[in-house]
């Protein structure tokens, strides 16, 4: 066997389960993803292995070189000082894999909880904007790296972004409405380091990209409308994730396509006419007289109310963010543009002023 000892189960899903195990060769804890023996899950597992091998092939050692220049104002020694150091790449590292009794078993580095778990631990309260900035930059670095290799993750969400460290720190929550000293605190990650996981749904740019991708809350409008998709669908998902980190709650909490689209319009404005004119097939039912069929097409009064209570994006962010508000709103508006051709690319987003602070 690969592992001397199974420590505990750390995750479970439709794909199978994840076990924390002791690797006797490396003398470290690892996470082993044991995939169900059904063909569709085996295929996804082999895609994940191939993607991670390709990422590793183009990123030797799993580290990047970071260069920071012009720090003279901090040191007053030279006119310009250039620092170089290596930082871990922001995707999970593949250790090994094997096929055991028709179950693909993938061995990963052992990581901490997901951003979803961290938000739950934090009682769905917002992260400080500086933590959002650090996490967002790392996710974007991973997306940019994948896009350079013609890869599209397609399933970015808080559950698929893990903290490297499981440690938390207790900090005062000055915005809390609670008066009790025992509850007037946030539990925040001690380290901002993250890794993107779950590459089993990764697609390549040259494939036929018309099928449904992404988990509902993070699904781009072009996917819902059946207009085809590409790299920008990852950018939309990232925008939704950053809003969730800023506010503590998912931006679009829905399970219906029409309601989802109506929520997008409530938060971001009207879907462009040229996108609605391209619709055919099942998506045509979402449009009437050149506009979204809402509220007349709503499934219930509760659905209309759920849409109506949503604020504009800028108002939502201003309710939760104390500083860098203008920068983060401007960034999110670039990530969450309806037309995928107008959305920021990963590299453009990394150059945004929000990440220069």
In words, what does this structure look like?
Keywords: ATP-binding, Kinase, Nucleotide-binding, Serine/threonine-protein kinase, Transferase. This is dual-specificity kinase. It catalyses: L-threonyl-[protein] + ATP = O-phospho-L-threonyl-[protein] + ADP + H(+); L-seryl-[protein] + ATP = O-phospho-L-seryl-[protein] + ADP + H(+); L-tyrosyl-[protein] + ATP = O-phospho-L-tyrosyl-[protein] + ADP + H(+). With 357 residues, the chain is of the alpha+beta class. The chain has a domain at 111-357: Transferase(Phosphotransferase) domain 1 (Transferase(Phosphotransferase), domain 1, Orthogonal Bundle), CATH 1.10.510.10. It is built from twelve helices and 15 strands. It has helices at residues 39-57, 72-75, 115-121, 129-148, 221-224, 232-247, 257-268, 273-276, 301-308, 313-320, 325-335, 346-350; strands at 3-13, 16-23, 28-35, 63-68, 83-88, 94-100, 103-109, 151-152, 161-163, 168-172, 185-189, 194-196, 203-204, 287-288, 291-292. The strands form six sheets. It has a five-stranded antiparallel sheet, covered by helices on one side. β14 and β15 form a beta hairpin. α4 runs antiparallel to α6 (232-247), α6 (232-247) packs antiparallel against α11 (325-335) and α10 runs antiparallel to α11 (325-335). The longest helix is centred in the middle third of the chain and has 20 residues, at 129-148. The chain starts with a strand and ends in a 7-residue tail after the last helix. 34% of the residues are buried. Mean pLDDT is 89; it is low at 64-86.
């Amino acid at each position: 066997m690969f592992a001397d000892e199974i420590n505990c189960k750390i995750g479970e899903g439709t794909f199978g389960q994840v076990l924390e195990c002791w690797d006797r060769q490396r003398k470290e804890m690892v996470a082993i993803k044991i995939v169900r023996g059904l063909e569709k899950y085996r295929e996804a597992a082999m895609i994940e292995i191939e993607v991670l091998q390709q990422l590793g092939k183009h990123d030797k050692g799993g580290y990047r070189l970071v260069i920071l220049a012009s720090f003279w104002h901090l040191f007053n020694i030279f006119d310009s000082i250039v620092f170089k150091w290596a930082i871990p790449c922001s995707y999970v590292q593949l250790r090994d894999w094997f096929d055991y009794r028709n179950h693909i078993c993938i061995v990963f580095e052992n990581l901490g909880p997901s951003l979803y778990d961290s938000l739950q631990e934090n009682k769905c309260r917002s992260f400080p904007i500086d933590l959002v900035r650090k996490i967002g930059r790392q996710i974007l670095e991973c997306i940019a790296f994948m896009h350079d290799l013609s890869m599209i993750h397609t399933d970015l969400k808080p559950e698929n972004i893990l903290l490297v460290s499981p440690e938390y720190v207790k900090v005062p929550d000055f915005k809390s409405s609670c008066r009790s000293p025992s509850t007037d605190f946030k539990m925040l990650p001690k380290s901002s380091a993250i890794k993107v996981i779950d590459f089993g749904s990764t697609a390549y740019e040259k494939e036929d990209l018309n099928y449904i991708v992404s988990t509902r809350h993070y699904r781009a409008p072009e996917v819902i409308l059946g207009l085809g998709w590409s790299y920008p669908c990852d950018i939309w998902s990232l925008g939704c994730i950053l809003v969730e980190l800023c506010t503590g709650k998912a931006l679009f909490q829905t399970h219906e396509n029409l309601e989802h689209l109506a929520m997008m319009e409530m938060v971001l404005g009207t879907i462009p006419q040229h996108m609605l004119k391209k619709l055919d097939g099942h998506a045509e039912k979402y449009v009437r007289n050149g506009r979204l069929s809402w509220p007349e097409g709503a499934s219930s009064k509760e659905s209309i109310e759920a849409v109506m209570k949503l604020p504009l994006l800028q108002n939502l962010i201003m309710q939760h963010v104390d500083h860098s508000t203008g920068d983060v709103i401007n960034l999110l508006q670039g990530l969450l543009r309806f037309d995928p051709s107008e959305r920021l690319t990963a590299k453009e987003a990394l150059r945004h002023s929000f990440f220069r602070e």
